[in-house]
Amino acid sequence: MASIRIFVALELPGVVRQILADTQSNLDFLDRKVRWVRPEGMHLTLKFVGDVCEGQVPVIVSAVQEAAANTQVLRLSTSGMGGFPNLDRARVVWVGIQGDLEPLRDLQGRVDDLLEGAGFPAEKRRFFPHVTFGRARRNPVQVPKDRAGPVPSVHFQVDRVTVIKSELKPDGAVYSPLGYGLLD
Q1: Which of 37, 76, 91, 144 has the fewest C-beta atoms lying within 10 Å of its C-beta?
Q2: Are 6 and 166 in contact (CB under 8 A)?
């Protein structure tokens, strides 16, 4: 059976993705050093599952649906820009998330626990809610705070968790939803 690459995420509303894309344009001086995430690819990852057999997708979707059950709709907002490991030597440039963080962390933990129970390894790193904005092409980059400009605080609601297929292409990843877990 064919193998596909899967992750579980919260999709961002279109208006949020567009505002974040507009914010990226403030950083165009880094275009040669950073590969920016296209707006349609911006999301908040809850769990990277990795390569799985297509036959395992229903198990993953079922676990996500169970994790989402009895979870309130999340009210979140964008909050500042950062980098991993930091903005002075960023390999990843990200936008932070604020709002209903305790229910968000609970949801992420349930997704991780239920998928671990279904045979998928648990996350080793502590969950840090963020939206990946760009990745350094080769070497870490310095993102000067004074040139980056502020990231608008955009408030939004999330009412579902999405299981997403990721196909890596030369011009960037292509994402396709495979199933949803609805929040109350």
Answers
A1: 144
A2: yes
What pairing do the DSSP bridges indicate for beta strands 130-136 and 43-53? unpaired
Listed residue (45, 57, 55, 52) closest to 8, CA to CA: 45
Pair of tokens at residue 42: 């911006």
> What is the secondary structure of 107-155 as a DSSP string?
HHHHHHHHHHHTTPPPP-SPP--EEEEEEESSS-B---HHHH-PPP--E
Residue 148 Rama label (left phi>0; alpha psi -120 to 50; beta): alpha
Q: Which amino acid, one-letter code, is at 152?
A: P
For helices 101-117 and 57-68, the axis angle rounded to 10 degrees is 140
pTM of the model: 0.94
The tally of CA atoms less than 13 A away on the side-chain side of residue 137 is 8
Encode the chain (184 residues) as per-residue pLDDT tens digits. Answer: 689 999 999 999 999 999 999 989 889 999 999 999 999 999 999 999 999 999 999 999 999 999 999 899 999 999 989 999 999 999 999 999 999 999 999 999 999 999 999 999 999 999 999 999 999 999 999 998 777 667 889 999 999 999 999 998 887 789 999 999 999 8
Give the helix ranges, DSSP H, for the chain. Answer: 14-24, 57-68, 101-117, 145-148
